[in-house]
Amino acid sequence: MSAEHHTDTVLEMKDLYVGYYKDLNILQGLNIKVQRNKITAVLGANGVGKSTALRAAFGFLKPNEGDILLEGESILPVATYNRILKGLAYIPQQPGIFKDMSVEENLELGAWTFRRDKKQIRRKIDANYERFPILKEKRKQITGELSGGQQRMVEIGRTLMAEPKVLLVDEPTAGLSKMLSQEVYEMLTVLTSQDNLTILLVDQEIRQALKIADYVYVLELGRNKFEGPASEFTDLEKAFWVEG
Ligand SMILES: Nc1ncnc2c1ncn2[C@@H]1O[C@H](COP(=O)(O)OP(=O)(O)OP(=O)(O)O)[C@@H](O)[C@H]1O
Ligand SMILES: [Mg+2]
Fold it and tell me: Which of 48, 91, 219 for mutating ligand 1's site (highest number of atoms within 8 Å of CB)?
């Protein structure tokens, strides 16, 4: 682990033990540091605990041991609602948009933390239309009628309404075509470079994630297996669980 890697850690999971049942920890001493304005990828086989780590970071699961720090301060006592106010955002593995509502209505829902400020809501919606021009074109359309990639954009756009500092995103391109996936990955890199966002990306798309990530963690059975700059992960066969 190089010294310069940990200079500006925004989010940190420290010796984290988390599970769904008492005495059964899925995460067993996980350590992850997320650097400001970077994309940190968490990779690993099915069931190693990637999504569990994100749920714990967002406050949906309470760790049995260890700590989670946001800008150096423990957020374990902080409820999810207040984590959002502190700048955390989460896009879960299962899409959570409202397919029967219009694109713009979905975006409005992202404004619930400042729902009385109509001007601000308008400003944030327009910022999303600038970010994703296709959503402006389709703003009145029922979201369920959009392509899979566009629905992902609606979801990401809605999440960005609250202007988060750190985005936790779980398999953002699951179920999307190669071309749409490409668009989503590109969008994530743009968010770090233009919108100062810090991203913790959980993914099964190893090659794609390595392309856009700055730093990578590979998990095995709820623990760290490998970590390093994405550029150093050239020997895929060795670094991962890939067989043959
Ligand atoms: N709601 C739940 N209740 C009980 N056990 C769960 C729950 N969700 C996940 N688990 C278990 O926790 C372990 C880790 O699951 P998790 O979803 O974090 O894995 P993952 O790395 O995200 O896998 P995938 O790549 O398939 O999404 C698995 O053994 C899973 O069965
Ligand atoms: Mg998962």
Answer: 48
